[in-house]
Design a protein that fits this description.
Strand order of the largest sheet of chain A: 1-4-5-6-7-8-9
Structural class of chain A: alpha/beta
Largest sheet of chain A: 7 strands, parallel
Number of strands of chain A: 9
CATH class of chain A: Alpha Beta
Number of domains of chain A: 1
Helix content of chain A: 40-55%
Largest interface: A-B, 33 and 33 residues
Distance between the termini of chain A: 37 Å
Oligomer: homodimer
Radius of gyration of chain A: 19 Å
CATH topology of chain A: TIM Barrel
Chain lengths: 352, 352
């Protein structure tokens, strides 16, 4: 595809465990509502129109790269494109969040349109990735991503966000077989989707298990971890077979403090952690085998500048400079001052 | 007050680390919407009217004791009675939850009516406790409770529930001194409130730090733990000075997996844990010094009976039979079948 040569490979080097001149930093949801230029565009277009229009998705993905000295770009999209590809109606309602036509009973699984042809249904993501990669001119690597099966299943059963995920978790207790069937359908779609993203130009792939925090060790090991593992294995094999081998992969299971050992042995190069986990403890639990990513409290960005710099520097002291990618412990909040994002990025890069 | 003699002291024995014939079990929010008899009464009265009317609060508190073989009764009330006592308007809106007149700026702290005379403002809770204790006829001990300062502060700033608590957490980063001032005001009120409950007849006191899950180790150790510790010390001293010494105390900091060591050394007799923490790990971290309480996933109650029995028994195997109080890892959900609550209680008591 004649992509421009990569000029900043800190993210990829750190993901592979290699030495870096400076600590790579990017921010989950960096293409988002805290940026006025994002909000301007968002006023004109519906959320999913932005995802589905490669030129818009590319523009929005690159906005934070034009403004900040970030070490990675992440494609603008949403984890709920997978349920959409399975035929589920999904809308993004302002100040409510995503609203999905919910699966109520196990029989509803039969309504899903499977198998998914991801090239047909989600080809717009591949196009957006290829376009963004060209537009980036090799400045920084491009990250592709997907939601993980349990997280997607939870949205599909709850029909949107929920404080407890009690409907989705009820499935795990009441209908374990149907749950596994649904998780397998989602796994198959995610595998094809991530391979497609790599083939289109994504240089690192991150899997978001955002709803891990609602599970405990037992449910996670039964209904999340096996699919997370399977995805890594199959995506790596699949990428190699389409000639884009050796793509690093990241797993970020928010709230899975109880499964850091398991996650570090699940095949991923990078394990993301949230701010409730102490970096020193995360290093101990993951035994130095993987690169860690995270984990500043998103609310730390509300701090006055000097305090923010101190918090960033203390975080790096705990993680250490190698096998480390700096990030927040979750997506950035819409009311953060962009000037504070710059302060954070510079503080990370300034660490000697 | 001539309270009837206590016939079942399993809860208190377990809290003190003594041997028990059967494992004591109670359920957070056991006086709640999953019971048809509760919903019947709730249809006739506003939520806070029920809290403020001792006869109603007592009736509702005793409902689950009449139905199940529980080892404790907890007084029906709400953690938000403390903000109310400080002059904050609080309403419970159906299908929304609590709505408070929020504190927006640090100056708003001056609007709070301090110091609180808890006997005057919250005397109805004391009355409800005394009445309930008599009505229980010594069947089981009565638990009093309060919200912990950080949890109350978060509600007061957010003005209700929130997915991120980003407004309240912003205070911790931006206004640490004002935050500590507010937390101190709340601590003083909570101390008096808990002593009043003990003097009125509560036989164990539980402090709920329900919003601990939004903090990480650093914020928790700065803005939650010192107040939690202080409350324990002052309540125990205060109880002794009003002649109700030796009342066991429980701290339940939901989501504080990162601070179990600290909590186990904070003076409380019992540490409650949520279902994301493996009981074996909790025992290791707390070093056998405290009694543990918890931690079945509330959604486990959706399981078919045999599976529920197995889950309960597996939980007990991990905690062990001594220094243990069985409970859920959070409050019971409104759509749970009461028949499953009976199955759980019997399964716990059946453990040999």
């Amino acid at each position: 595809m004649n992509f421009p040569a990569l000029k900043n490979d800190r993210l990829l080097r750190a993901a592979r465990g290699e030495e870096v001149d400076k600590i790579p930093v990017w921010i989950m949801r960096q293409a988002g509502r805290y940026l006025p230029e994002f909000r301007d565009l968002r006023q004109k277009y519906d959320f999913f129109t932005m995802c589905q229009t490669p030129a818009l998705a590319a523009e929005v993905s690159i906005q934070p790269i034009q403004r900040f000295d970030l070490d990675a770009c992440i494609i603008f999209s949403d984890i709920l494109v997978i349920p959409q590809a399975l035929g589920v109606h999904v809308e993004m309602k302002p100040s409510v969040g995503p609203v999905l036509e919910p699966l109520v009973e196990p029989e509803d699984i039969t309504k899903l349109e499977v198998p998914v042809n991801v090239n047909e249904k989600l080809g717009y993501v591949a196009e957006a990735i290829t376009l963004t990669r060209h537009k980036l001119e090799g400045k920084v690597p491009l990250i592709g991503f997907s939601g993980a099966p349990w997280t997607l299943m939870a949205y599909m059963i709850e029909g949107g966000g929920s404080k407890t995920l009690s409907k989705a978790k009820a499935w795990l207790y009441k209908y374990p077989d149907a749950s596994k069937k649904l998780l397998t359908i989602l796994t198959d779609a995610v595998v094809d989707y991530m391979i497609m993203q790599a083939a289109a130009g994504a240089q690192l792939l991150q899997l978001f298990e955002s709803n891990a925090e609602y599970l405990g060790p037992d449910l996670f090991c039964k209904f999340a971890l096996p699919y997370i593992r399977d995805i890594c294995k199959r995506v790596k094999t699949g990428c190699a077979s389409v000639g884009v081998g050796n793509i690093p992969m990241t797993i970020f299971a928010k709230g899975a403090h109880y499964a850091l050992e398991e996650l570090s042995g699940s095949g991923y190069d990078v394990v993301g952690i949230d701010w409730t986990v102490d970096p020193t403890e995360a290093r101990n639990k993951t035994g130095g085998t993987v690169t860690l990513q995270g984990n500043l409290d998103p609310c730390a960005l509300y701090s006055p500048p000097e305090q923010l710099k101190r918090l960033a520097s203390e975080m790096v002291q705990k993680f250490g400079k190698t096998k480390y990618i700096a990030n927040l412990g979750h997506g950035i909040y819409p009311d953060v001052d962009p000037a504070h994002v710059k302060i954070l990025i510079d503080a990370i890069h300034d660490v000697k």
